[in-house]
Design a protein that fits this description.
315 residues, alpha/beta, FAD/NAD(P)-binding domain, 2 domains, five-stranded parallel β-sheet, 6 helices, 19 strands
Length: 315
């Protein structure tokens, strides 16, 4: 079924919700299309300590719920539909979903986020869901009084590793370097936690086990010696890959799959925007993603007003 909207937002993470709040306040007919659940990765984060306005931190699901209420308050519609394509009809975009709907709009804001990057090592796929996980908030409680390993050296690895100490008896972080990309405050907190251990200058070569994870084989990047680490779970936080499959069919992406934009978050196609983890150069923070969503919505308002004046679009 064909439906007209002023703005279609693909993805309901913080960036998309922020864009919806501003688009709704501008009195534009706005719909968010989200294939799974609002909030994206944020909804799976136990504690967010660096989002302004919450000095004691805020749980990801709580922040998502507040943003959703605000977006709905200003008239944004939210539909759980998976987008399968975005095509162009002159200046008008057509967003098709698995529900059989086709949304026509002059503005589309791509906020499809990213998925966890995999290690691509033997045993990872075979043991996924049987000890291999990419979400500590989702699966941490299953590892009460057990030994788990965390792979990675960024904010996610340290934060989620610290969260896992609430359940696990030991948390062993494996990282390929001595230094960390994570904020110093998380590294310091981990070093002070008696349950937290570090295995540095090491990479995972194999995740081992039969019906569940029992061991990981790591290799020292300097000496090339290999060591087994017995464990019950492996939590992998080695970055994310942007969900740019549909975007790459109508706009150029970089080798990693990110979409290039100008400072207004607009791509080379007028009225097509990319924000959040999908955007090339994004800092991948909730606060910056919200800012990108606001920027895109405010610039989109000017685009739509221009097209209404010139007869391209009827509001």
């Amino acid at each position: 079924m064909d439906e007209n909207r002023d703005i279609v937002i693909v993805g309901g993470g913080p960036s998309g919700l922020a864009a919806a709040i501003y688009a709704g306040r501008a009195r534009f007919k706005t719909v968010i299309l989200e294939k799974m659940m609002l909030g994206g990765q944020v909804a799976l984060t136990n504690d967010i300590a660096n989002y302004p306005g919450f000095p004691d931190g805020v749980a990801g699901p709580e922040l998502t719920e507040l943003m959703e209420k605000q977006a709905r308050k200003f008239g944004a519609e939210i539909r759980l539909e998976e987008v399968v394509s975005v095509s162009l009809d002159g200046d008008i975009k057509i967003v098709a979903t698995t529900a059989g709907n086709a949304y026509r709009a002059p503005v589309v804001i791509l906020s499809s986020g990213a998925d966890p990057r995999k290690l691509e090592c033997p045993g990872e796929e075979e043991l996924r869901g049987r000890g291999v996980s990419y979400c500590a908030t989702c699966d941490g409680p299953f590892f009460r009084n057990k030994v788990v390993t965390v792979i990675g050296g960024g904010d996610a690895a340290l934060k989620e590793g610290l969260f896992l100490t609430k359940f696990a008896s030991r948390v062993i972080l494996v990282h390929r370097r001595q230094g960390f990309r994570a904020e110093k405050i998380y590294v310091e907190e981990a070093r002070q936690n008696p349950k937290f251990e570090f295995v540095l200058d090491a990479v995972v070569k194999e995740i081992q086990g039969g019906d569940k994870v029992k061991n990981i084989l790591v290799e020292n990047v300097i000496t090339k010696t290999q060591t087994g680490i017995p464990c019950d779970g492996v939590f992998i936080f080695v970055g994310h890959l942007p969900n740019s499959g549909m975007a790459s069919k109508i706009v150029e992406t970089d080798p990693a799959g990110h979409v290039a934009t100008n400072r207004d978050m607009e791509t080379k196609i007028p009225g097509l925007y990319a924000i959040g983890d999908l955007r090339q150069g994004s800092y991948r923070q909730i606060a910056t993603g919200v800012g990108e969503g606001v920027t895109a919505a405010m610039h989109a308002e000017r685009r739509i007003d221009e097209w209404i004046r010139t007869g391209v679009w009827s509001h």
